Amino acid sequence: MTDSVKYFLPEERIPRTWYNIIADLPEPPAPVLNPGTKQPIGPEDLAAIFPMSLIAQEVSTEREIEIPDPVRDIYKLWRPSPLIRARRLEAALDTPAKIYFKYEGVSPAGSHKPNTAVAQAFYNKEAGITKLSTETGAGQWGSSLAFAGSLFGLEVKVYMVRVSFNQKPYRRALMETYGATCIPSPSEETECGRAILAEHPDSPGSLGIAISEAVEVAAQNADTNYSLGSVLNHVLLHQSVIGQEAMEQMEMAGDEPDVIIGCAGGGSNFAGLAFPYIGAKLRGGPAPKIVAVEPAACPTLSRGSYAYDFGDTAHLTPLMKMYTLGAGFIPPGFHAGGLRYHGMSPLVSQLMELGEIEARAVQQLGCFEAGIQFARSEGIVPAPESTHAVRVAIDEALAAKEAGEAKTILFNLSGHGHFDMQAYMDYFAGKLEDRDYDEAELKRSLAELPAAE
After folding, report:
1. Mean predicted lDDT score pLDDT of the chain
2. For domain 6-13+68-110+234-447, which CATH number applies: 3.40.50.10420, 3.40.50.300, 3.40.50.1100, 3.40.1190.10?
3. How confident is the model at residue 337 (pLDDT cuts 50, 70, 90)?
4. Using H for helix, E for strand and C for coil, what is the string for the chain?
5. Which of 218, 248, 436, 453 lies at a C-alpha separation of 20 to 30 Å from 17?
6. Where are the domains of the chain?
7. Would the pLDDT of 113 be above 80?
8. Tens of pLDDT along 430-439?
């Protein structure tokens, strides 16, 4: 077994429960607030856009929540996903470190996102909902919900951040292949979209804007619910299958990670890998270093404020306590579209505030350089988002080489880049540049945070 590369689990080892880190936190999460009254919201405040089953999961304090059999049966299409040791990358780096990655690009949609999309579609179908609205940045979430909707006979409408809509036509085609409708955001279809276009006709869009449009549609139509691909507690809950499988596979490999790494936009793939490990630590287990990697052009954890804020630009959502750059912050249109979000999951934010994780912000040229080195060693072309995790995994392996330490590194390769090749073409053509956010824009956005405490 010492020269093994892939570690597979049989289908019967797909987790039977999702892991809920709230059960192990030293203090409960900050309540979600009604923006008008500044009082904690109740289930009825969310019932217009979410089914009660997901609302219950959002506030649950149970450590384990059973995965329904129909969801688990669909998971069998790609789960358990493989754990792979990057032996060729190790050799290329000449490092004593061992590098493992959990590969979520094996799902039908090519990323980790179906882990929650299938669950959300199932619960909405059970509740009698026939249509779902959502947003997407790079398109991984939109295509995943489109896939899930096709399995449960749900109509799916996706508001795609306009700059990504233009950058990634094949993501749009994938959504349409699964039967979804894909609309560039901001659009003329919603009051929010029309208002933004009236003020900024050339707006590149943002996840915050696209969320506003999708929430508006769900709130105004009784047959439509809203689905979110990251940030919320129930989304991170569903992603915990990643880390649960990884723990068992690392045991198969006879290893225990010293460093755990995931890219972080809203927090879902990072939490999916890291939360089961953090939970084990909080219960007295091993204490690996855990790194959330974000883009330097949208450094939510690194430069944001830990405060109550809206999850969307039009202020249609409740207030969540999280690291935020301000709901009005519009990041530059760099290629890692799935990481262009102003806020971070409240649970990830709370763990950052508690010192359980650390954040690292990296520039996109270094990420693409790392992604190409990874592809030329391991054969898999990472999604632009995933290259952020690859970048820091390589940096950690080189630091181990410098120190002469045989560290064990585990990262989440959250998706492949087969629909993102234009970004790689632009990199090879020298068209990409490292993008920095506008410092004045950030200060203005943070100054507009709502008064909630």
Report:
1. 95
2. 3.40.50.1100
3. low
4. CCCCCEECCCHHHCCCEEECHHHHCCCCCCCCECCCCCCECCHHHHCCCCCHHHHHHHHCCCCEEECCHHHHHHHCCCCCCCEEECHHHHHHHCCCCEEEEEECCCCCCCECCHHHHHHHHHHHHHCCCCEEEEEECCCHHHHHHHHHHHHHCCEEEEEEEHHHHHHCHHHHHHHHHCCCEEEEECCCCCHHHHHHHHHCCCCCCCHHHHHHHHHHHHHHCCCEEECCCCCCHHHHHHHCHHHHHHHHHHHHHCCCCCEEEEECCCCHHHHHHHHHHHHHHHCCCCCCEEEEEEECCCCHHHHCEEEEEECCCCCCCCEEEEEECCCCCCCCCCCCHHHCCCECCHHHHHHHHCCCCEEEEECHHHHHHHHHHHHHHHCCCECCCHHHHHHHHHHHHHHHHHHCCCCEEEEEECEECCCCHHHHHHHHCCCCCCCCCCHHHHHHHHHCCCCCC
5. 218
6. 6-13+68-110+234-447
7. yes
8. 999 998 888 9
Q: pLDDT category, 336, cuts 50, 70, 90?
A: low
- Extract the tokens encoding 414: 């959250």
Tell which phi-psi region holds residue 38, choosing left (phi > 0), alpha (psi between -120 and 50) or beta: left
Phi, psi (degrees; rounded to nearest 5) at 118: -65, -45
Q: How confident is residue 207, by pLDDT bands cut at 50, 70 and 90?
A: confident
Predicted structure pTM score: 0.95
Which has more confidence, 168 or 92? 92
pLDDT in tens, 287-306: 999 999 999 999 999 999 99
